[in-house]
Amino acid sequence: MATDPKFVRFLVLFNCDRDYYECHDVMEELWLEEGRSRFWQGLLQVAVGLHHYENDNYTGAVKLLRAALEKLDGYADAEAGIDVKRLREDAAAVLAPLEAWLAEGSGGHPPEPEPIEIRVIDPQLAGLVAAETARPHGDQPRADGE
């Protein structure tokens, strides 16, 4: 599961490209294929929450980041080759100032979110992510992994 090409692609889009909309599409496919796991859904919701944040939909960002944290809270600190504990901490660090800003009436500019990177802790997965990162952008692997 952790070495699924879609998961690898998701990590590249999330960590390197910061293309939260595209990585949401990739993760949604994996989530549906893998039986709608709460874990994959939590990762999906982090990406969608950050996409909403980037597009000034702050209420949507709060809703999705809260939902993501709720889903990911039930998982081990390390799952599927990634550091889930750190992801939860980073998502919470983005969420808290945004919630405070909204509670204060949204005056001025919204807080600038701290960048989130999903830390890959499994060596095999890290190698796959590095290889995918080195691949030219238009040269995506086929669905069968080739």
From TrEMBL:
Pfam families: DUF309. Signal peptide: none annotated. InterPro entries: DUF309 (IPR005500), TTHA0068_sf (IPR023203). It comes from the Bacteria. This is DUF309 domain-containing protein. It comes from Thermobacillus composti (strain DSM 18247 / JCM 13945 / KWC4). The lineage of its organism: Bacteria, Bacillati, Bacillota, Bacilli, Bacillales.
